[in-house]
Each structure stands twice: as structure tokens, then as C-alpha cells.
Design brief:
Layout (H helix, E strand, L loop, with lengths): L2 E6 L3 H12 L2 E6 L11 E4 L2 E4 L9 H8 L11 E3 L2 E6 L5 E5 L2 H12 L4 H22 L12 H8 L10 H8 L3 H8 L20 H7 L2 E3 L4 H13 L3 E3 L4 E7 L2 E7 L2 E4 L2 E4 L3 H8 L7 H5 L5 E9 L9 E4 L4 H9 L10 E4 L14 E9 L7 H20 L7 E7 L1 H8 L16 H4 L10 E3 L10 H16 L1
Parallel strand pairs: 1-2, 1-13, 2-9, 6-15, 13-19
Antiparallel strand pairs: 3-4, 5-8, 6-7, 10-11, 11-12, 14-17, 14-18, 15-16, 16-17
């Protein structure tokens, strides 16, 4: 028997951690309060329609492949994916539709044709986004920001010497306003703040590295849907003899002399010398280690935005739409003020529509589509979500009807929803925040909780800790945490 390790929570970061711990000689058990694994990365079935319930964007697929490769497996024998030729369709209220081609030359021609502007500023902007990503990824994303060794590496030296170019002291919107030559492009690239639940009018300009993930490296799609990422990783973990305890809530982490000793669940006590929590870090401190002093900076960080999602089985096919679609609000600044300052839903929300049946025909009946319709909303601060959901649904229907010139209400055959309350209940995310803390501060990355703790043997992974939310960063959190263990 190897050394005993326990992972609390079976989100993608928890499963990735389990796979990596096996490679280090641990015997690993994963405990999950739900009767299904995956956290936010799950799937739902409504009648004859299948929906990926949570994440819908797949970037940096090599981070998933790496889990199989370190186990000596061929990832293509477990799951496959394709690169999208069309990143997104962007719809504006004045009737403009921009097609974001993955091919950069096609994209530049599209911008010149549709917006009647010189495309060179956009080319320079995309090059700058690539520069930001390459200059920051080794130091900010792939290593712990909370270890001295990170700051004496050659990577950090390159980052420091490039500091003036990293836009740390300007907001994303300010940088976009200067570098881009059309307000529709500014809005398009401001949107990338929502990829980590933040406000582009406050989030630091260094986050303009995010577009490079799609426009530079590429957007991908698993051939069986996003949920297949989880299924493939689960299959690998089970082959490696990771033991899963589903439907078993962890009541607390047992600690003595500042060292973990195991966990207690409703079924008993399980000893372990190493514990990785894939729970929301605020909930970990409140629920699992309530006797330990929680770091004030972490506990006081502004939550990221949450989401209101409608799952609609649509009795029609819409050729105008692609896999990823955005229907922009007319006043973006006002939308973010509603979310982060007024703690409510904008009366003109930007709408994201994801349609996996554009690629996976069996996700919807022939001639029909499965719509995942998402609105960015504030985290749960006690709002009347029933009232907000019903009001927002009316606004969403009206906006879709207006922009797509349809009567969407008459086409909805199946329906369900997800709101901050349900997100919190199903994933134990603090206040239903999708990404833990927001990045509405230039120091936000440093305020995120590290992947280790002051308690020997206790580590943290997932979207609420360093380096952040979304599948790629959750996978990196697992890599950082497990790399720290051997040190």
C-alpha cells in the first residue's frame, strides 16, 4: 500500500489531482457529496435533448492530454476533440454580425468588410495578447505565486523586465480603447473579462492575455461534448485505482499539531497524511476547518460574477447561429455596473448561446437544437432570484426575438435553469460565484489563496484558488499543488 491521500471534491481539478497523486505513489480516495462526479462539469438530459450543464469553452487541450500522458496512456484512446474554424458569432443591436474566424487572415478581412476600418490595429492587438500570455504564463499561471522560488527564476526576470508592457496599471477597457479602432471591437475584447467573472472596466489590462487562448492558440470542442472530458478523466482515474466515494459528505478535516490526520464523513473516519481540497476555499475554511484561522484577504475578496442559465430544447434550427454566439448589450458599462455595483441583473444583458448540437447531432432531435443560454449575473447576496429569473427570462426572450427575428417562446419544447442559488447548492460555491474571487483589482492574482496552506499536508485546488477558474486554470492548480507536494 502507498501513502494515503484524500481528495475532497470531484471537480476536474480534484480528479486531475488524484491522477497526479497516483503517479507519486499515493493511494488515493476521492470524496464527493453529490451522487455524481464533476462539480460544474456535468451533463443534463431534458427529454430528447442533452446539454453540457457547465463549462462550454475548451482551450489549452494539451493540459487534459498531459494527464493521460503522465500515466503512460494515449489520450486519443480515451477522448478526442476538434479545433473550431469559427470561434464565435457576435451580434450587435444595430444588426451587425461579426464572424470570429479562427483563421486570422479571414478574421482581419471580416473586420475590414463589416466595420469598414483598418485591420492592422487588431493584428497588433492580437500580437500584444500573445506577448502578454507568453510573458506571464510561466510565472503567473504555471507556478505558485506564493513561493520564494518563483521569484528567483529566469521566468520572473523576463516578466519584471517587461513590466511596463504588461498593462498592470490600466484596466482591460482602457487598454482596449487605446489599441482598438472601433467601439464594437472594444466591446468584443472587453468581454474576455467575463472568462474569470470580472469587470473589464476594473480588471487589470494584463488580462488581455486571455483572448490569445482562442484567437492565437485556438478553441476546441470534444467530439462527444464537454462532459466527455470528465468522463475520460474518470475512466483513467478508475483504471489507476483511484477510489471514489460518491454521495459521502466530508464533515471536517482532522488536524492535530498543525498537521492533517484524516477526514470525518457521515460514514466514519478516514486517516490520511495528505489532503487536497477541491472545495471552494472559503467554504473549506468555514465548513471543513472552522477551528483554523482563515486568511482575511481571501475571505474578504469580492466574489466573481455568477450565472443565470436557461437550458432550452428548441424546435427549430437556426443557420445564423454557430456553436458559440454572443448577443451584446447596447450599454456594456451599465451592464457591469448592474452586476458588480448594484448587485442585480442588467435590464439589457449580454446573452451567450451555446449549441453543442451544431457539432454533436445526437444532442438534439433532427431539425432541432439544444440551447444553453447564459447571462452574467452577480453572486448571491440575498437577492430575490425567483423574481430576477422570471424578469430576466422575459428580457432574454425579447432580445433574442429582436436580434434573430423570431418567436423563440413558441419554439421551446424543454426547459430547465441554473441560478446562483442552485449553483451554490450543487457545487458548494461560495455565494454561487463561478470563479471564486473576481479579478477587479490589479493585485487580485496575488490575493488568491495559494495552493498550499499553513497546515502540513493540506493543499487547495480548483477555481477559487491560484491560478483561477475555468478548466485550464483548474488543471494547472492541480499540477501546481501536486508539484509542491514533492518539494
Amino acid at each position: 500500500m502507498g501513502k494515503e491521500a484524500i481528495v475532497i471534491g470531484s471537480g476536474i481539478a480534484g480528479i486531475a489531482s488524484a491522477i497526479r497523486l497516483i503517479q507519486k505513489g499515493y493511494t488515493v480516495s476521492v470524496f464527493e457529496v453529490n451522487n455524481y462526479p464533476g462539480g460544474k462539469l456535468t451533463s443534463i438530459q431534458l427529454g430528447n435533448y442533452r446539454f453540457d450543464a457547465g463549462p462550454s469553452l475548451f482551450t489549452l487541450p494539451h493540459l487534459v492530454d498531459e494527464l493521460f500522458e503522465i500515466a503512460g496512456k494515449n489520450p486519443r484512446e480515451y477522448f478526442n476533440y476538434q479545433q473550431l474554424e469559427m470561434l464565435c458569432h457576435y451580434f450587435y443591436e444595430d444588426g451587425t454580425i461579426l464572424h470570429a474566424f479562427a483563421d486570422q487572415q479571414k478574421l482581419l478581412k471580416e473586420i475590414e468588410h463589416k466595420l469598414q476600418v483598418d485591420s492592422r490595429p487588431l493584428k497588433d492587438y492580437l500580437d500584444h495578447s500573445a506577448y502578454l500570455f507568453e510573458r506571464t504564463r510561466h510565472s503567473f499561471l504555471e507556478k505558485s505565486l506564493h513561493k520564494f522560488s518563483t521569484y528567483i527564476s529566469s521566468d520572473i526576470l523576463k516578466t519584471v523586465t517587461s513590466m511596463r508592457k504588461l498593462n498592470l496599471f490600466s484596466s482591460m477597457h482602457e487598454v482596449n480603447g487605446i489599441k482598438l479602432n472601433h467601439p464594437k471591437l472594444v466591446q468584443l475584447f472587453d468581454r474576455f473579462a467575463t472568462y474569470n467573472g470580472s469587470n473589464p472596466y476594473k480588471a487589470p489590462g494584463v488580462l488581455n492575455s486571455i483572448p490569445h487562448l482562442e484567437f492565437g492558440i485556438g478553441s476546441f470542442f470534444p467530439v462527444k461534448g464537454m462532459h466527455h472530458i470528465l468522463e475520460a478523466c474518470m475512466k483513467l482515474a478508475e483504471e489507476l485505482r483511484v477510489k471514489f466515494h460518491l454521495n459521502e459528505r466530508v464533515e471536517n478535516i482532522q488536524i492535530s499539531n498543525r498537521k492533517v490526520r484524516g477526514i470525518e464523513t457521515q460514514k466514519g473516519i478516514y486517516p490520511a497524511e495528505l489532503i487536497i481540497s477541491n472545495c471552494d476555499v472559503k467554504q473549506s475554511y468555514k465548513q471543513l476547518i472552522p477551528t483554523q484561522t482563515a486568511p482575511k484577504k481571501t475571505m474578504n475578496q469580492e466574489p466573481s460574477s455568477s450565472a443565470l442559465i436557461f437550458y432550452w430544447g428548441i424546435n427549430q434550427s437556426f443557420p445564423k447561429l454557430d456553436v458559440h454566439n454572443i448577443l451584446f448589450s447596447d450599454d456594456y458599462k451599465k451592464e457591469f455596473e448592474s452586476i458588480f455595483e448594484e448587485q442585480t441583473v442588467s435590464d439589457d444583458p449580454t446573452i451567450y448561446i451555446h449549441i453543442s448540437s451544431k457539432i454533436i447531432a445526437e444532442d438534439a432531435p433532427k431539425g432541432k437544437e439544444n440551447w444553453f443560454v447564459m447571462i452574467n449575473v452577480p453572486s448571491d447576496q440575498g437577492q430575490d432570484w425567483e423574481k430576477l429569473r422570471l424578469n430576466t427570462r422575459k428580457m432574454v426572450v425579447q432580445k433574442i426575438n429582436r436580434i434573430l427575428k423570431t418567436n423563440i417562446e413558441s419554439l421551446i419544447e424543454e426547459e430547465d435553469y441554473l441560478d446562483p442559488i442552485r449553483i451554490s447548492d450543487r457545487t458548494n460555491s461560495f455565494a454561487g460565484a463561478l470563479y471564486g474571487a473576481s479579478s477587479n483589482d490589479r493585485m487580485a492574482a496575488f490575493f488568491r489563496h495559494p495552493n498550499f496552506s499553513k497546515i502540513k499536508g493540506l493543499y487547495f485546488v480548483g477555481g477559487s484558488v491560484h491560478p483561477g477558474g475555468g478548466i485550464p486554470l483548474c488543471l494547472l492548480s492541480a499540477k501546481i499543488a501536486t508539484d509542491l507536494i514533492e518539494k
